[in-house]
Design the sequence.
């Protein structure tokens, strides 16, 4: 048995150059059979240890049953074998979350590793160009492990030495198709290690109804929709500025109205004011009543309103200097959110050069200095080119909705965002599928997150204006015994508002 090991055959392989002048004969070094056997044995033991460490539950179940069979006989083993699935089913039915966290997702990950990723790994990475064939040997990136949660598989990969993240990001589409996923997101785990995220289902595939108005006033992140992983999308507006870019019909209105909707209780409590600039007159005019007179559509009025915001900002900066470094909304110093729809009308398409410069200067001043004193900007636009919006980089948080060209994605979200999976140019133009879907990139994270804003319909906006607009506030104020402005005179009356009557 030991006489015919593979090396013996290699000795007989002789090759020559075409003119047979040079003869190549392989040098065969004989490895003692015992060394080969020891190496195999070592590999077997290492593989078993790895199996136990990686899949403890999958190993423990058959081993446990085997031990029971040996010690107590077949009947007992079959009884226990039937008992375990029954226990699992009961656990799943009674405590779904803990079952999935501790068992379910691990089993699924193991199954997907075997059936999808390990099975297709070699052909997919070779055909997509991520593997290398050098001197007769295949060099493949190492598939390390798969984890699953409710919406996606996360595949940890060790790149080949010398590969760059960009090599993988460029092949995201190949990988997605290769493993039968709708998309693939590439993120760096640490040097040389990547995590590929393959969603299994898309919670953003259908429109979401408007998020209910919160019960309590809170200027913290406002829930306006859902993230791709099914978690609520909470958009921070206090303490930052947000730029939303998307082609016509991409659903920018949902982000503006969703945010205003989430802030309604704070508006009523006097902790937030929304100042609206609506040069198109189509979007924000619907809810004029909510802005308590701070609404402008005409470009000159818009410039005046922005100048007023700059004055408030500077007055606060003078007052806060040396006393506080961040803003806490109060009735005396509410958070002012300046909402600008189609900002390009004011910064680029405005024929009056003087007005254009005035507006751009005010926006630049507010975006650079307004954050710390409680003045935030939320601006929407269709065309993200620099000529149209040269201050776009002053917005820390950005959202790219459906865009017409792939180059526009990086213009909005910053360099490399598209390579990291922000395929805003692939979002469906069909409103039902794609309106409100976008990629959010926060200043704090380079990885864009796919999100969808809930749809705030015209009826919702009308309802909001009716319940929380000027008229309703005045009547509530009167009922509270502090007629007129909700501001300084109503401090004690805040608790008196009927938040409980709001639809949950
Ligand atoms: N979040 C959403 N979910 C589902 N459908 C939406 C959503 N937002 C908007 N839509 C649909 O898309 C249409 C266009 O939306 P919207 O007017 O907000 O787009 P827009 O980006 O503001 O366009 P424009 O720049 O032309 O004003 C809406 O009439 C609605 O039918």
Sequence:
């Amino acid at each position: 048995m030991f006489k015919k090991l593979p090396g013996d055959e290699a000795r007989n392989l002789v090759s020559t150059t075409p003119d047979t002048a040079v003869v190549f004969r392989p040098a065969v070094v004989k490895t003692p059979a015992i060394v080969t056997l020891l190496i195999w044995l070592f590999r077997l033991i290492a593989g078993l240890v790895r199996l136990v460490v990686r899949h403890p539950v999958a190993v423990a179940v058959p081993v446990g049953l085997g031990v029971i069979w040996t010690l107590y006989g077949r009947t007992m083993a079959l009884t226990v074998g039937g008992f375990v699935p029954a226990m699992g089913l009961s656990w799943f039915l009674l405590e779904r979350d803990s079952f999935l966290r501790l068992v379910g997702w691990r089993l699924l990950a193991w199954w997907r590793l075997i059936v999808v990723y390990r099975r297709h790994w070699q052909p997919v990475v070779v055909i997509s160009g991520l593997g290398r064939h050098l001197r007769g040997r295949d060099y493949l990136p190492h598939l390390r492990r798969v984890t699953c949660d409710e919406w996606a598989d996360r595949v940890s990969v060790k790149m080949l030495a010398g590969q760059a993240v960009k090599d993988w990001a460029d092949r995201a589409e190949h990988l997605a198709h290769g493993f039968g996923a709708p998309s693939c997101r590439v993120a760096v785990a640490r040097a040389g290690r990547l995590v590929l995220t393959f969603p299994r289902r898309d919670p953003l595939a259908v429109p979401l109804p408007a998020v209910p108005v919160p019960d309590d006033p809170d200027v913290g992140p406002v829930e306006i929709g859902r993230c791709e992983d099914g978690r609520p999308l909470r958009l921070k507006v206090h303490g930052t500025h947000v730029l939303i870019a998307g082609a016509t019909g991409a659903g920018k209105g949902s982000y503006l109205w969703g945010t205003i909707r989430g802030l309604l209780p704070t508006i009523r409590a006097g902790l937030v004011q929304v100042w609206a600039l609506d040069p198109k007159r189509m979007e924000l005019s619907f809810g004029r009543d909510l802005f308590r007179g701070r609404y402008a559509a005409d470009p000159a009025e818009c410039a005046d309103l922005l100048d007023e915001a700059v004055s408030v900002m500077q007055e606060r900066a003078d007052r806060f200097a040396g006393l506080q470094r961040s803003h806490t909304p109060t009735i005396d110093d509410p958070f002012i959110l300046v909402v600008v729809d189609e900002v390009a009308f004011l910064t680029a398409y405005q024929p009056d050069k003087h007005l254009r410069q005035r507006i751009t200067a005010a926006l630049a001043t507010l975006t650079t200095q307004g954050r710390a004193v409680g003045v935030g900007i939320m601006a929407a636009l269709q065309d993200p080119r620099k000529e149209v919006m040269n201050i776009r980089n002053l917005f820390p948080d950005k959202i790219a909705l459906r865009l017409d060209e792939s180059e526009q994605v990086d213009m909005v979200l910053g360099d490399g965002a598209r390579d990291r999976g922000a395929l805003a140019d692939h979002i469906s133009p069909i409103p039902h599928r794609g309106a409100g879907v976008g990629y959010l990139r926060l200043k704090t994270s380079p990885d864009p997150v796919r999100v969808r804003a809930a749809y705030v319909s015209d009826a919702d906006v009308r309802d909001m204006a009716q319940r929380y607009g000027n008229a309703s506030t005045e009547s509530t104020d009167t009922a509270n015994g502090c007629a007129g402005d909700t501001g300084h005179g109503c401090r004690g009356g805040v608790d008196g508002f009927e938040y409980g009557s709001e639809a949950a």
Observations:
- The domain at 222-480 is CATH 3.40.50.300 (Rossmann fold).
- Residues 96-127 form the longest helix (32 residues).
- The chain has two domains: 106-201, 222-480.
- DSSP finds 15 helices and 18 strands in the chain.
